[in-house]
Amino acid sequence: MQETLAEPAARVGRRGWTLALAALAGLGLSFAQPPWGLWPLVFPAVAALAFMHGRAGAQQAGWLGLAAGTAYFGAGLYWIAEAFFVDAARHGWMAPFAVLFMAVGMALFWALPFRIAARHPTRPALQPLWLAALWAAAEFARANILTGFPWALSAYAWVETPLAQVASLIGPHGLGLVTLLAACALALPGRRL
Questions:
Q1: Count of domains observed in the chain
Q2: What's the CA gap between 179 and 51, in Å, rounded?
Q3: Is residue 162, in this structure, part of any structural domain at all?
Q4: Is residue 75 within 8 Å of residue 30, measured between CB atoms?
Q5: How far apart are CA 109 and CA 65, in angstroms?
Q6: Which ranges in the chain belong to alpha helices (H)?
Q7: Residues 1-26: tens digit of each pLDDT
Q8: What are the tens digits of pLDDT across the range 130-182?
Q9: Does residue 1 form part of some domain?
Q10: Domain coverage including residue 80
Q11: Distances from the Cα of 188 to the Cαs of 88, 113, 120, 180, in angstroms?
Q12: pTM assigned to the model
């Protein structure tokens, strides 16, 4: 059977929409962080990413993580640009590049667990939980590798809530793992164990 030119274009279009939805979920997840503190957004945003991840191949899953992470870190770390405006005439032009490159660099820590989870799957019903575990491990790595960058961890969504106190028992990475497991579990209904 011969493929028409419209079929590859349709696949590219679907991938583009999927990546746009992943970026939108990453953006929504950033609004769960301070200063906005819209913590209920954690659940639909992470569940949407886990749902899309479950339907993607390994390469597509890596791109999903990169798109979502770039939007998340771009919106969550926008304040880094402020340093470039101390002397705006000389350094202001660098601000958008700094935020973009920082966001993409940090998003690589999301792309890797998304790709690994898709490339080395567990039982299909447990795939979202496997993603959550690898994602939490990547957050731990990001916070510690090369002196670390522990800003914008998933646990920070709880900073202005009573659940933040749980971090005193299991630490921010434990709270992040619990958060990601709970949110990814929402992508489980309809799957067979």
A1: 1
A2: 16
A3: yes
A4: yes
A5: 8
A6: 6-30, 42-54, 58-76, 88-91, 95-119, 127-144, 167-185
A7: 555 555 554 555 678 899 999 999 99
A8: 999 999 999 999 999 988 999 999 999 999 999 999 999 999 999 999 999 99
A9: no
A10: 6-185
A11: 49, 18, 18, 13
A12: 0.89
- Res. 193 pLDDT band, cuts 50 70 90: very low
Tokens of 143: 């916070």
Size (the chain), residues: 193
Q: Which two tokens stand for residue 42?
A: 């954690």
42-70 residue pLDDT tens: 999 999 999 999 999 999 999 999 999 99
Structure tokens at 36: 């906005």
Taking alpha carbons only, the member of 155, 142, 165 closest to residue 34 is 155
Residue for token digits 């419209």?
6
Structure tokens at 183: 């949110």
